[in-house]
């Protein structure tokens, strides 16, 4: 607590000294308030990074300077005569796209049997490769002077150029021995049948032989496949036992729900069919009547 109080007191003194020195400077009135012009700094702070070196000109820049070619800004949109619309100069749906040309006019210098569309694609591929090669050459020239761009310096070790000026690290004897031992034991036999050099010491780290189960199951090692499979399944089941139980319960619930819905539908369908059936008319069976039966019921 005492240390914090002392730090606050010292900070307050420094801030008060800066404020006093600022208010002692001549000021001018403004609509927003008084304005003070700060004096020129007397203490020069050193730079963290060195001043960037000028980038060497590329071959095209040297050629353009020699011939007096000036760089002019091109429009992003160009009129396309084939479609009669404005299109981009580069990128998707650009002007004079090779995919938009259905027919290529043959020339007298064309060889018979050569596909002009495939030839145009090959020429474009060669132009891209040449441009990439020139780009790498320019980076090499810049790396010799030490004027690589900032975005290339971060990935200079990954580029096929000598961008880093750091000296190569010397490999020690132990590291060479470890690498030689790893190379010697990298074969399937673990270096057992390899030819030894005169004076070569045995490898420190012997390779491990991988043991595979036989294809045909039998006694001995052949019966271990079933045990390994059971162990893997037991681990999986024990690890995800709660998920498996949840899945089983959900399956049982869905199964019971389907069976219940099926029974309800069958009951509804049976009741509907009974309602649609016509009702049978009940007819009384007329028994044999005697000759005096018609006169029965007539009373005078």
Automatic annotation (TrEMBL):
Residue ranges with Basic and acidic residues bias: 117-132, 192-203
Top-rank lineage group of the source organism: Eukaryota
Signal peptide, first to last residue: none
One GO cellular component term: nucleolus
Keyword Transport included in the entry's annotation: no
Ranges of compositional bias, category Basic residues: 276-288
Compositionally biased tracts (Low complexity): 182-191
GO BP: any one term: endonucleolytic cleavage in ITS1 to separate SSU-rRNA from 5.8S rRNA and LSU-rRNA from tricistronic rRNA transcript (SSU-rRNA, 5.8S rRNA, LSU-rRNA)
Entry annotated with the keyword Nucleus: yes
Main localization of the protein described in the UniProt heading: nucleus
InterPro entries: Ribosom_reg (IPR007023)
Location of the protein in the cell: Nucleus
Keyword line: Nucleus, Ribosome biogenesis
Region (Disordered): 29-59, 104-132, 182-300
Family of this protein: Belongs to the RRS1 family.
Job description of the protein: Involved in ribosomal large subunit assembly.
Name the UniProt record assigns to this protein: Ribosome biogenesis regulatory protein
Organism: Gossypium armourianum
Taxonomic path: Eukaryota, Viridiplantae, Streptophyta, Embryophyta, Tracheophyta
């Amino acid at each position: 607590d005492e240390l914090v109080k002392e730090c606050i007191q010292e900070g307050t003194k420094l801030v008060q000294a800066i404020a006093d020195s600022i208010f002692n400077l001549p000021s001018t009135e403004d609509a927003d308030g008084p304005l003070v012009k700060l004096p020129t700094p007397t203490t020069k702070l050193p730079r963290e990074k060195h001043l960037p070196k000028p980038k060497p000109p590329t071959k095209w820049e040297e050629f353009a300077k020699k011939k007096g070619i000036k760089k002019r800004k091109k429009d992003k949109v160009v009129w396309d005569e084939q479609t009669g619309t404005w299109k981009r100069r580069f990128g998707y749906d650009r002007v004079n796209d090779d995919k938009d040309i259905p027919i290529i006019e043959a020339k007298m210098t064309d060889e018979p049997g050569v596909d002009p569309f495939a030839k145009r694609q090959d020429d474009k591929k060669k132009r891209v490769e040449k441009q990439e090669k020139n780009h790498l050459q320019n980076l090499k020239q810049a790396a010799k002077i030490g004027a690589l761009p900032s975005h290339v310096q971060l990935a200079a070790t990954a580029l096929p150029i000598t961008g880093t000026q750091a000296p190569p690290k010397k490999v020690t004897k132990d590291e060479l021995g470890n690498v030689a031992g790893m190379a010697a034991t990298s074969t399937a036999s673990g270096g057992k049948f390899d030819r030894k050099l005169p004076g070569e010491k045995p490898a420190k780290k012997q390779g491990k032989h991988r043991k595979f189960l036989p294809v045909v199951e039998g006694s001995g090692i052949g019966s271990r496949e079933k045990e390994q499979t059971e162990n893997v399944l037991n681990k999986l089941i024990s690890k995800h036992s709660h998920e498996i139980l949840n899945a089983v319960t959900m399956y049982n619930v869905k199964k019971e729900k389907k069976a219940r819905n099926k029974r309800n539908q069958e009951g509804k369908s049976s009741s509907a069919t009974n309602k649609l059936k016509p009702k049978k008319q009940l007819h009384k069976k007329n028994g044999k009547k005697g000759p005096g039966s018609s006169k029965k019921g007539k009373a005078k």
